[in-house]
Amino acid sequence: MASPFSDLDSRLDRAVAAPEDSGSSTPPTAVSVWLGDLDGRPRYEHDALAAHYAASTMKLPLVIAAFRRVVRGELDLDAPVTVTGRFASVLDGSPFDLDESDDQDPSTWSAVGGTRTLRELAEQAITHSSNIATNLLVDVVGLAEVAEVLRIVGCSPATVVGRGIEDAAARAAGITNTVTATDLGLVMAAVGRRDPALGGEAVLAPVEELLARQTHVDQVPAGLPPGTATASKSGWIPGVSHDVALVRPEGEEAFVLAVCTTIDLDETEAAVYVAGIAREVWRAEHPTEEERA
Asked: Which residues pair with 234 in a beta bridge?
């Protein structure tokens, strides 16, 4: 019996089948999908172990790491954090400045020279995908704590959070942030099942609440039936568009869908493309009476 995902597999294979330009410096085209339950068991995978530049999906394990430290009593959500747009490279400590025009968080930028609480920074990093809030969190939480989250979940060596946003010196030295669809799915599944190894309900319930307030819902959530409850984190830079969503459909078991694309599309086109994949995944698992016949 043919897999309900056969048509989607064929379409995704065609999307990456264009001849490669051996002289191009552009990353190879890749489209990855992981669909699984909250125990981390896959129901569908397509090139799900391929490594992609993480873009803003690195903010998901970062915020989990922040809440783990809060629950351990090491950080206070209401403690003030000095807001600056200048940071130190993880490579050599050299200073670099974030570009405010590339960010989506005027609220935190307006506080430069003042303070925001750790709670506010976590909110902005997830719901508005704020770059300045993310780098401030990296400085407070520490990259070692993020690595520990990835280790506990069982992520592969291909998923790494090695630096903050726009750390050009580190990037030039090969220090980067990468992810696979499988690993994104495993992290989000751990949130959904309240994995005790990550701190259980105390850590992961507030993380899911943050993700459920996501304002960037034009990728996976847009491909699901209207009104479907999701908690998600997306990421986009030119040529890269990802989304991972914890989905809680009414009357059905929750699941996680992660889609990672490294493909030459602009932001709007990429969002439509990822939403289309989510729509096909949903239809494959919810066939009409005609399709069942």
From this structure: 243
Residue 147: in which H helix or E strand, if any?
helix 143-153
d(CA 268, CA 271): 5
pLDDT digits (tens, 9 = 90+) for 97-150: 999 999 989 999 999 999 999 999 999 999 999 999 999 999 999 999 999 999
What SS3 class is residue 122?
helix
Residue 209 is encoded by which pair of tokens? Answer: 């609440």
CB 86 within 8 A of CB 113: no
Average pLDDT taken over every residue of the chain: 94
Q: Which of 181, 162, 144, 188 is nearest to 39 (CA)?
A: 188
Secondary element (H or E) of residue 244: strand 240-248
Q: Per residue in 248-291, pLDDT tens?
A: 999 999 999 999 999 999 999 999 999 999 999 999 999 876 66
CA distances from 279 to 24, 56, 77, 84, 115 (A): 32, 22, 37, 41, 42
Q: Which helix (H) or strand (E) holds 53?
A: strand 52-53
Number of neighbouring beta carbons within 10 Å of residue 148: 16
**Nearest one of 122, 139, 143 to 84, comparing CA atoms:** 139
Contacts of 1 (CB under 8 A, 6+ apart): none
In this prediction the pTM is 0.94
